[in-house]
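yo

u said u wanted the structure for the complex thing, so here. seqs first:
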Amino acid sequence: MGRTFRRWIIEQSRASNVGHIASALSIADLMAVLWGAVMKDPGTDRPDRDRFILAKGHAALALYCALRWKKLLDEKAFAGYCTDGSPLGQHPEHVLPGVDLSTGSLGQGLSVGCGLAYGLRAKKSPGRVFVLLSDAECNEGQVWEAAQFAGHHRLANLTAVIDLNGLQALGHTAEVLDLAPMADKWRAFGWDTVEVDGHDTAALEAALAPADGRSRSRMVVARTVQGKGVSFMEGRLEWHYRNLTDELCAQALAEIGPA
Amino acid sequence: MRSAFIAALSAQAATDARIFLLTGDLGWTVVEEFAGKYPGRFLNAGVAEQNMAGLATGLAQAGFVPFTYTIATFASMRAYEQIRNGPVLHRLPVRIVGVGGGFAYGHAGMTHFALEDLAIARAQPGLTVIVPADPAQTKSVMDAIRAVEGPVYLRVGKGGNPEVPGLNGRFALGRPEVVVEGSEVLLLATGGIAVNAVEASRRLRADEVSAAVAVMAHLPHAPTPELRALLGRFKAVVTVEEGYTAGGLGSLAAEAIAQAGLGCRLLIRGVHASPRERAGSTAFLQAAERLSPAALADSARTVLSAVPK
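structre next:
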């Protein structure tokens, strides 16, 4: 499933001639696990459904892959990515089924996830709330306001995932504003924190599974490789922005392999 | 006004289980009663206004009608982008309560003067901006906003706001409320400062100048027919607001006058420059910005003198 998402990301990025490819590839496995195995009824109108917020909205294409997989988007709508008048832009809009929050401005998603989790708990809903953040998004102060809130109120129905790929727009996170030790920071804020390989689907599934009796918000720090699966993109800063050529597209698809 | 606000909110919460109150760690002697009565629907979000705006967005998505409460500067500016990307973008019934706009926190100084909150709130289509003029109108506003599906920015006075003579709590969205009839010049005011406009009209009457006064508590994104109709009856208008003169009530009136081609001279009274060099009592600061009754009466004479005979 992660491989299918990667193929779709590459094919559609080339077709639409749009960047932000590596950021989407970095969460392909995460999205496959969340949308394929973990979340209950996402994108439906059931009041007790699990909710999903892509706080790192610039990886919207990976979310559109999940919506396509779930048949919340048909292939024609998916192919409209970044075309004039399409609701599928570079950042997700809540008008799409399965998009619980329009995002794109970093740092704001986790607060809304906290409000949703608090509200669902108050209404005795079993629905869980999932928020996927980028590592550099944690530069934003608001993230830590939300971290305090979830820690204090012990929002056990809230699970956050950090896509720890170590790169941000202009450099390595360690060189721009070092966030290490990331997991310790969340532990200090009262989160039940685990660190996993963000491309190990079994480990991700275990980390994201509902844990009966858990009394705190869960933080999954997922170590990932930006551009994962495409040799010339892996860990390369320029693929935060660059677009594919036909040749590079063919090479990338060959490396990813058949769906 | 904040007492009227919280009383109305508590009354509504008794019959409407969706009502939820969040505070940014402010509201000493204001929020306690609500918190005691409805502990499951009260939350002190801490000194974290950006997160509070996000929490309100999520709570609204979960089916609540959240009111966020803090001082108007922090309510409007600290969380402006969160309000725009949350309740405004998602059309959610979040009510952002900004306490004590203008010079209400006079001695607290510039960091506590909300002078641009109305302008920036008005800039968002889909955000209903309301500035009640007195406690009775606050109560009516609280009733009226129950029917507003999208977000509301509500600037309420800090306290000690006298009733505006003749207003009698009247309020409707988009409609100016005439509180003093007159024929030569209109004083159009928003918020608690409206009492100064009424007093100015009394002084003008003593000088045989017939000045009407109207209260425009709702500052819509675009002028309304009711506002145009009122402005169309006058050759001279003075707008009165406790805030910067760009983007608020004066701008709204100017848009109405220009767009409809109304033949009316306009003088915008408000805060013209940053009052950073001084703090003081509310009355002192209002007077320094020529918002006292005497200065407003002078403004009315000034604009009248510019009208061609």
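The first strand of chain B starts at residue 19 and ends at 23. Chain B has a mean pLDDT of 96.
cya
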